[in-house]
Amino acid sequence: YLTWLNNFFHGEFGLSYTTGKSVGTLLGERIFNTFNLSLFTALLMYSIAIPMGMYAGRYNGSKFDKFVNFYNFFFLAIPSFVLYLFMIALFGFGLGWFPTSGSVDVNLDPGTFVYYIDKLKHLILPGICLALLSTVSTVQYLRNEVIDAKQSDYVKTARAKGVPVNKVYSGHIFRNSILPIAAFFGFSITGLFSGGIFVETIFGYPGMGQLFYQSILDRDYSVVTTLMLFSGFLTLLGSMLSDIIMAIVDPRIKLD
Fold first, then answer.
1. Torsion of CA 55, 56, 62, 66, to 10 degrees
2. CA 99 – CA 92 distance, rounded (Å)
3. Percentage helix, strand, coil, to 5, in the chain?
4. Residue 230 φ/ψ, nearest 5 degrees
5. Residue 201: which pLDDT band, with cuts at 50, 70 and 90?
6. Are the beta carbons of 64 and 56 closer than 8 angstroms?
7. How far, in Å, CA of 81 to CA of 213, rounded?
8. Rounded CA gap, 164 and 167, in Å?
Protein backbone atom coordinates (compact mmCIF):
# COMPACT_ATOMS: atom_id res chain seq x y z
CA TYR A 1 0.00 0.00 0.00
CA LEU A 2 2.83 2.41 0.84
CA THR A 3 4.36 1.70 -2.57
CA TRP A 4 1.02 2.43 -4.24
CA LEU A 5 0.61 5.60 -2.17
CA ASN A 6 4.09 6.77 -3.13
CA ASN A 7 3.32 6.10 -6.81
CA PHE A 8 0.02 7.98 -6.46
CA PHE A 9 1.74 11.18 -5.37
CA HIS A 10 4.06 10.79 -8.35
CA GLY A 11 1.11 10.59 -10.74
CA GLU A 12 1.22 6.82 -11.23
CA PHE A 13 -2.19 5.36 -10.37
CA GLY A 14 -1.67 1.83 -11.63
CA LEU A 15 -3.53 -0.11 -14.30
CA SER A 16 -7.22 -0.93 -14.61
CA TYR A 17 -7.90 -4.64 -14.03
CA THR A 18 -10.70 -4.75 -16.60
CA THR A 19 -9.45 -2.56 -19.45
CA GLY A 20 -5.69 -2.76 -19.00
CA LYS A 21 -5.46 1.01 -19.44
CA SER A 22 -3.67 3.34 -17.08
CA VAL A 23 -6.02 4.65 -14.39
CA GLY A 24 -4.74 8.14 -15.15
CA THR A 25 -5.82 7.68 -18.77
CA LEU A 26 -9.30 6.59 -17.68
CA LEU A 27 -9.63 9.61 -15.41
CA GLY A 28 -8.40 11.92 -18.16
CA GLU A 29 -11.12 10.62 -20.47
CA ARG A 30 -13.84 11.38 -17.90
CA ILE A 31 -12.71 14.29 -15.77
CA PHE A 32 -13.54 17.07 -18.24
CA ASN A 33 -17.06 15.70 -18.77
CA THR A 34 -17.66 15.79 -15.02
CA PHE A 35 -16.09 19.26 -14.79
CA ASN A 36 -18.43 20.58 -17.50
CA LEU A 37 -21.47 19.02 -15.84
CA SER A 38 -20.47 20.35 -12.41
CA LEU A 39 -19.83 23.87 -13.68
CA PHE A 40 -23.14 23.98 -15.58
CA THR A 41 -25.02 22.59 -12.57
CA ALA A 42 -23.42 25.04 -10.13
CA LEU A 43 -24.23 28.05 -12.32
CA LEU A 44 -27.81 26.87 -12.79
CA MET A 45 -28.24 25.96 -9.12
CA TYR A 46 -27.21 29.34 -7.72
CA SER A 47 -29.04 31.21 -10.49
CA ILE A 48 -32.23 29.52 -9.29
CA ALA A 49 -31.63 29.28 -5.54
CA ILE A 50 -30.43 32.80 -4.68
CA PRO A 51 -33.31 34.76 -6.30
CA MET A 52 -35.87 32.27 -4.97
CA GLY A 53 -34.50 32.34 -1.43
CA MET A 54 -34.18 36.12 -1.33
CA TYR A 55 -37.65 36.80 -2.74
CA ALA A 56 -39.34 34.16 -0.55
CA GLY A 57 -37.64 35.56 2.56
CA ARG A 58 -38.49 39.14 1.68
CA TYR A 59 -42.16 38.33 1.07
CA ASN A 60 -42.61 35.46 3.52
CA GLY A 61 -46.20 34.33 3.77
CA SER A 62 -46.99 35.35 0.20
CA LYS A 63 -48.16 33.01 -2.54
CA PHE A 64 -44.64 32.85 -3.93
CA ASP A 65 -43.29 31.90 -0.50
CA LYS A 66 -45.85 29.08 -0.29
CA PHE A 67 -44.78 27.91 -3.74
CA VAL A 68 -41.15 27.91 -2.62
CA ASN A 69 -42.03 25.83 0.45
CA PHE A 70 -43.86 23.34 -1.76
CA TYR A 71 -40.88 23.33 -4.16
CA ASN A 72 -38.50 22.54 -1.30
CA PHE A 73 -40.63 19.77 0.17
CA PHE A 74 -41.21 18.21 -3.25
CA PHE A 75 -37.58 18.05 -4.35
CA LEU A 76 -36.46 17.04 -0.87
CA ALA A 77 -38.90 14.13 -0.83
CA ILE A 78 -38.64 12.81 -4.37
CA PRO A 79 -36.00 10.09 -4.90
CA SER A 80 -33.34 11.29 -7.32
CA PHE A 81 -33.60 8.30 -9.65
CA VAL A 82 -37.37 8.80 -9.97
CA LEU A 83 -36.84 12.40 -11.07
CA TYR A 84 -34.10 11.39 -13.52
CA LEU A 85 -36.21 8.67 -15.14
CA PHE A 86 -39.24 10.96 -15.35
CA MET A 87 -37.23 13.74 -17.02
CA ILE A 88 -35.73 11.28 -19.50
CA ALA A 89 -39.17 9.87 -20.32
CA LEU A 90 -40.74 13.33 -20.72
CA PHE A 91 -38.08 15.52 -22.32
CA GLY A 92 -35.95 12.80 -23.90
CA PHE A 93 -38.31 10.20 -25.34
CA GLY A 94 -41.65 12.03 -25.12
CA LEU A 95 -40.85 15.50 -26.45
CA GLY A 96 -37.47 14.64 -27.94
CA TRP A 97 -35.94 17.95 -26.84
CA PHE A 98 -32.72 16.56 -25.38
CA PRO A 99 -30.46 13.51 -25.87
CA THR A 100 -30.95 10.75 -23.32
CA SER A 101 -27.40 9.37 -23.07
CA GLY A 102 -23.77 10.13 -23.83
CA SER A 103 -21.87 13.43 -23.77
CA VAL A 104 -21.74 14.16 -27.52
CA ASP A 105 -22.78 12.64 -30.85
CA VAL A 106 -19.95 10.34 -31.98
CA ASN A 107 -20.52 11.29 -35.63
CA LEU A 108 -19.52 14.94 -35.09
CA ASP A 109 -16.02 16.23 -35.69
CA PRO A 110 -14.31 17.46 -32.49
CA GLY A 111 -13.54 21.17 -32.34
CA THR A 112 -16.37 22.31 -34.60
CA PHE A 113 -19.12 24.70 -33.51
CA VAL A 114 -21.79 22.01 -33.96
CA TYR A 115 -19.71 19.67 -31.78
CA TYR A 116 -19.71 22.08 -28.81
CA ILE A 117 -23.40 22.88 -29.24
CA ASP A 118 -24.15 19.15 -29.12
CA LYS A 119 -22.06 18.77 -25.95
CA LEU A 120 -24.12 21.56 -24.38
CA LYS A 121 -27.36 19.81 -25.37
CA HIS A 122 -26.16 16.65 -23.65
CA LEU A 123 -25.42 18.68 -20.50
CA ILE A 124 -28.77 20.42 -20.15
CA LEU A 125 -31.06 17.62 -18.99
CA PRO A 126 -28.78 16.00 -16.37
CA GLY A 127 -27.63 19.47 -15.28
CA ILE A 128 -31.20 20.65 -14.72
CA CYS A 129 -32.07 17.52 -12.74
CA LEU A 130 -28.99 17.80 -10.53
CA ALA A 131 -29.52 21.55 -10.03
CA LEU A 132 -33.17 21.16 -9.00
CA LEU A 133 -32.25 18.65 -6.31
CA SER A 134 -29.28 20.74 -5.14
CA THR A 135 -31.18 24.01 -4.73
CA VAL A 136 -33.33 22.84 -1.81
CA SER A 137 -30.91 23.46 1.06
CA THR A 138 -29.62 26.73 -0.42
CA VAL A 139 -33.12 28.14 -0.92
CA GLN A 140 -34.23 27.13 2.57
CA TYR A 141 -31.12 28.47 4.29
CA LEU A 142 -31.29 31.78 2.46
CA ARG A 143 -35.03 32.21 3.03
CA ASN A 144 -34.71 31.63 6.77
CA GLU A 145 -31.69 33.93 7.06
CA VAL A 146 -33.50 36.76 5.24
CA ILE A 147 -36.54 36.40 7.50
CA ASP A 148 -34.33 36.57 10.60
CA ALA A 149 -32.27 39.47 9.23
CA LYS A 150 -35.38 41.59 8.62
CA GLN A 151 -35.88 41.80 12.38
CA SER A 152 -32.27 42.71 13.15
CA ASP A 153 -31.30 46.03 14.73
CA TYR A 154 -28.98 47.05 11.89
CA VAL A 155 -31.86 46.71 9.41
CA LYS A 156 -34.19 48.75 11.60
CA THR A 157 -31.47 51.40 11.92
CA ALA A 158 -30.93 51.53 8.17
CA ARG A 159 -34.66 51.87 7.55
CA ALA A 160 -34.89 54.62 10.20
CA LYS A 161 -32.12 56.54 8.42
CA GLY A 162 -34.17 56.50 5.24
CA VAL A 163 -32.12 53.97 3.29
CA PRO A 164 -34.22 52.69 0.33
CA VAL A 165 -35.77 49.26 0.85
CA ASN A 166 -34.05 47.70 -2.17
CA LYS A 167 -30.68 48.94 -0.96
CA VAL A 168 -31.34 47.55 2.52
CA TYR A 169 -31.95 44.11 1.02
CA SER A 170 -29.10 44.20 -1.48
CA GLY A 171 -26.48 45.89 0.67
CA HIS A 172 -27.32 44.77 4.20
CA ILE A 173 -29.60 41.76 4.39
CA PHE A 174 -28.19 39.84 1.42
CA ARG A 175 -24.57 40.21 2.52
CA ASN A 176 -25.30 38.83 5.98
CA SER A 177 -27.78 36.19 4.84
CA ILE A 178 -25.35 34.72 2.32
CA LEU A 179 -22.81 33.73 5.01
CA PRO A 180 -24.23 30.22 5.66
CA ILE A 181 -24.35 29.62 1.89
CA ALA A 182 -20.75 30.81 1.49
CA ALA A 183 -19.65 28.48 4.29
CA PHE A 184 -20.71 25.45 2.24
CA PHE A 185 -19.92 26.85 -1.21
CA GLY A 186 -16.57 25.08 -1.52
CA PHE A 187 -18.05 21.75 -0.44
CA SER A 188 -20.91 22.18 -2.92
CA ILE A 189 -18.59 22.78 -5.87
CA THR A 190 -16.17 19.95 -5.07
CA GLY A 191 -19.08 17.65 -4.23
CA LEU A 192 -20.53 18.19 -7.69
CA PHE A 193 -17.12 17.79 -9.29
CA SER A 194 -16.46 14.46 -7.58
CA GLY A 195 -19.19 13.05 -9.79
CA GLY A 196 -22.91 12.45 -9.42
CA ILE A 197 -23.02 8.65 -9.43
CA PHE A 198 -26.78 8.37 -9.91
CA VAL A 199 -27.23 11.10 -12.50
CA GLU A 200 -24.26 10.02 -14.63
CA THR A 201 -25.24 6.35 -14.47
CA ILE A 202 -28.92 6.84 -15.30
CA PHE A 203 -28.22 9.36 -18.06
CA GLY A 204 -25.34 7.27 -19.42
CA TYR A 205 -23.12 10.33 -19.09
CA PRO A 206 -19.44 9.28 -19.28
CA GLY A 207 -18.10 11.06 -16.22
CA MET A 208 -16.25 10.09 -13.07
CA GLY A 209 -19.43 9.12 -11.23
CA GLN A 210 -20.33 6.55 -13.87
CA LEU A 211 -16.73 5.31 -13.89
CA PHE A 212 -16.85 4.84 -10.11
CA TYR A 213 -20.10 2.87 -10.28
CA GLN A 214 -18.88 0.66 -13.12
CA SER A 215 -15.57 0.05 -11.36
CA ILE A 216 -17.38 -1.18 -8.25
CA LEU A 217 -19.46 -3.60 -10.35
CA ASP A 218 -16.32 -4.87 -12.12
CA ARG A 219 -14.30 -5.01 -8.86
CA ASP A 220 -11.69 -2.84 -10.52
CA TYR A 221 -9.96 -2.04 -7.25
CA SER A 222 -7.19 0.16 -8.64
CA VAL A 223 -9.76 2.53 -10.18
CA VAL A 224 -12.02 2.47 -7.09
CA THR A 225 -9.13 3.21 -4.72
CA THR A 226 -7.87 6.08 -6.88
CA LEU A 227 -11.32 7.63 -7.13
CA MET A 228 -11.86 7.33 -3.37
CA LEU A 229 -8.57 9.05 -2.65
CA PHE A 230 -9.34 11.70 -5.25
CA SER A 231 -12.73 12.30 -3.61
CA GLY A 232 -11.03 12.75 -0.23
CA PHE A 233 -8.62 15.26 -1.76
CA LEU A 234 -11.57 17.21 -3.19
CA THR A 235 -13.17 17.28 0.27
CA LEU A 236 -10.04 18.87 1.73
CA LEU A 237 -9.95 21.31 -1.19
CA GLY A 238 -13.61 22.17 -0.59
CA SER A 239 -12.88 22.90 3.07
CA MET A 240 -10.05 25.25 2.11
CA LEU A 241 -12.20 27.01 -0.51
CA SER A 242 -14.99 27.50 2.02
CA ASP A 243 -12.58 29.10 4.49
CA ILE A 244 -11.21 31.44 1.82
CA ILE A 245 -14.69 32.40 0.62
CA MET A 246 -15.84 33.06 4.18
CA ALA A 247 -12.84 35.33 4.76
CA ILE A 248 -13.75 37.30 1.62
CA VAL A 249 -17.46 37.57 2.40
CA ASP A 250 -17.12 38.19 6.14
CA PRO A 251 -14.41 40.77 6.98
CA ARG A 252 -14.54 39.71 10.64
CA ILE A 253 -12.73 36.50 9.68
CA LYS A 254 -9.01 36.86 9.07
CA LEU A 255 -6.77 34.26 7.49
CA ASP A 256 -3.37 33.79 9.12
1. 140
2. 6
3. 75, 0, 25
4. -65, -40
5. confident
6. yes
7. 15
8. 5
Over 60: is that where the pLDDT of 256 sits? no
The residue type at 106: V
The predicted pLDDT at position 192 comes to 66
Report the DSSP beta bridge partners of residue 22: 15
Q: What are residue 15's DSSP bridge partners?
A: 22
| pTM, entire model | 0.78
Band the pLDDT of 193: cuts 50, 70, 90: low
| Region for residue 234 given its phi and psi (left: phi exceeds 0; alpha: psi -120 to 50; beta: otherwise) | alpha
If we measure between CA atoms, which residue out of 194, 219, 220 comes closest to residue 208? 194
| Residue range 97-140, pLDDT digits in tens | 888 887 777 777 777 888 888 888 888 888 888 888 888 888 88
22 and 110 in contact (C-beta within 8 Å)? no
Q: What is the CA radius of gyration of the chain?
A: 22
Instruction: Please enumerate in sequence order all residues whose Cβ is within 8 A of that of 159, keeping only pairs 6 or more positions apart, or say none.
Output: 165, 168
Which region, left, alpha or beta, applies to residue 220 given φ > 0 means left and ψ of -120 to 50 means alpha?
beta
Q: How many CA atoms lie within 13 A of 212 on its CB side?
A: 20
